[in-house]
Design goal:
This protein has 129 residues and is mostly helical. 65% of the residues lie in helices and 0% in strands.
């Protein structure tokens, strides 16, 4: 069994599948922690992954999706801030904020269904083809 394949890991036992779905869902939803705690959306996903990566090996593909989105959103935010000089950045930063709210919720729903959902507009820094 490939320890990083979420399908093989989940098929190893019903308990493993349930645990993977739970932690994958929480990993995606942890991106929303920034709404409550400053920088929580950056710190909480990292902490969850570092704590659970050995216990739930199938979590890695979800981690790749989350970290790719974090890095992509950071790049988009910097570009939007620069474009605020020509006013279009205000619209872009608002749209980015909306996507940063919607994508983790959809990702969590998909993760709870046992699916790894790559966020649209996310630049692929980590993960395999």
């Amino acid at each position: 069994m490939n320890e990083y394949d979420p399908i093989e890991y989940a098929e190893s036992s019903p308990e493993a599948a349930k645990e993977l779905r739970l932690w994958a869902t929480l990993l995606h939803l942890s991106l929303l922690a920034g709404l409550i705690i400053p920088f929580g959306g950056l710190v909480v996903p990292v902490v969850i992954y570092l704590v659970k990566k050995d216990d739930v090996p199938g979590l890695q593909p979800h981690w790749h999706v989350v970290i790719n989105w974090l890095l992509s959103a950071l790049i988009y935010a910097v570009i939007s801030i620069i474009l605020m000089l020509v006013l279009i950045g205000f619209l872009l930063i608002w749209a980015l904020g909306l996507l940063a709210l919607i994508f983790p919720i959809i990702g969590a729903i998909k993760a709870n269904d046992g699916e790894v959902w790559p966020y649209p507009l996310s630049i692929r820094f980590f993960g395999r083809d």
